[in-house]
Amino acid sequence: MDSMGVGEPELAPEQRGPLSGALALPGGRVDEWIAPTLASLGAAFPPLAVLFWAMLIPPIRPAALALAVAGFLIQRRRGSPAAWPWAATIPVATIITWRLIPAPAGLPFAASCADLLSPPMLWRVAELALVVVAVLLLGRGLGVGRGHLPLGLPDRWFLGLAVAAGFLIAPVALLLGEDAARPFFGPVRLQIGLAGAILPALIFAAANATLEETVYRGVLLVWMERHVGTAGAILVQAAAFGLAHIGPDFISSPLPVLAATFSAGVLGGLIVKRTGSLLVPIIIHAAFDVALYYSLACRLA
After folding, report:
1. DSSP per-residue string spanning 28-97
2. Residues 6+ away with beta carbon under 8 Å from 136
3. pLDDT digit string, tens, across residues 203-243
4. Which residue in 38, 16, 34, 44 sits closest to 229, CA to CA?
5. Do residues 95 and 244 make contact, with C-beta atoms less than 8 angstroms apart?
6. Helix 119-142 / helix 83-98 crossing angle, nearest 10 deg
7. What are the φ and ψ backbone dihedral angles of 278, each rounded to 5 degrees?
8. What's the CA gap between 286 and 9, in Å, rounded?
9. Could you give the count of Cα atoms lying within 13 Å of 72 in the half-sphere of its Cβ?
10. Do 289 and 179 touch, CB atoms closer than 8 A?
11. Euclidean distance between CA atoms 228 and 101, whole angstroms
């Protein structure tokens, strides 16, 4: 919107956006790293505090989402650049609040595993639609279009490498899934021999990877970057991504999973910063999430 940044042109999106003033490289890569100021860090602290408290205390998540929306609307009305960090936290708050709703499980004995209307798949597609609407509305409120997020194509060799890695990761993750899950979730038996399950699994994986990469490596990283700096934004989104993957279903310490997802978040953030594209992390993420579909829809025990 036109009023954003009025009175503080140094923080206006068109003058100090994370993708502006940078060295544009082939494939849309952007290598500029932004350093934060004390004032910008101060503006980012309240929304981040609200977000991380909500991630640690699930019952307050709906209130935290409402507070984030209110903070964004107040700062937007004032024409303050502080609207950006509030906006950056809203998609994450939306996801973690949505996931308080019990998701529909697959039918017993993997009966819905190969169903093209598999409940876990449809639920995740609905979550993606919710996130897309939220991001579009926030972008409209901030006066920016989809080009403000890293939605371009990476270099062909980088894209080819990601696709090759995805084809390798997906079957390996599926074959090792039962053993990998056992220390954290107890014994798990999956029905992985149904050819018809491949399509719903791919749809589920693509939806989940797209929504999470858009929210964490897209909105949270890019919109928070102008206030906490590039390194700070990479660490913030990685920490949020890690915390989003722990919950009450663990039967042992979730710290190894937290460390792994945090590290994956850092790596994904660096890849997005290097390539200017979310596509590579989406492909790799989706490859791992194929096994997640089977754990939700194709469980025998």
Report:
1. GEE---PPP-HHHHHHHHHHHHHHHHHHHSGGGHHHHHHHHHHHHHHHHHHT-TTHHHHHHHHHHHHHHH
2. 146
3. 999 999 999 999 999 999 999 998 999 999 999 999 999 99
4. 34
5. yes
6. 170
7. -85, -10
8. 40
9. 25
10. no
11. 32
| pTM greater than the 0.85 cutoff | yes
Left, alpha or beta for 5 (phi > 0: left; psi -120 to 50: alpha)? Answer: left
For 4, 106, 219, 266, the CA distances from 147, given in Å and listed in that order, are: 17, 37, 12, 23
Whether the CB-CB separation of 130 and 94 falls below 8 Å is answered with yes
User: What is the three-class DSSP state of 215?
Assistant: helix
Q: Which of 83, 89, 77 is nearest to 12 (CA)?
A: 83
Centroid of chain to Cα 109: 31
Residue with tokens 């709906």: 62
Gyration radius of the chain's alpha carbons: 20
What pLDDT, in 10s, does the model give residues 42-87? 999 999 999 999 999 999 999 999 999 999 999 999 999 999 999 9
- Buried/exposed code over 185-210 (b: 16+ C-beta within 10 A; e: otherwise): eeebebbbeeeebeebbbbbbbbbbb
What are 21-44's pLDDT values in tens digits? 333 333 444 457 888 888 899 999
- Residue 299: strand pairing partners: 190
- Domain ranges in the chain are 29-297
DSSP 3-state of 290 = helix
Which residues of the chain form beta strands (DSSP E)? 24-25, 29-30
Question: Between the CA of residue 234 and those of 115, 150, 155, 220, what are the distances in Å?
Answer: 38, 14, 22, 9
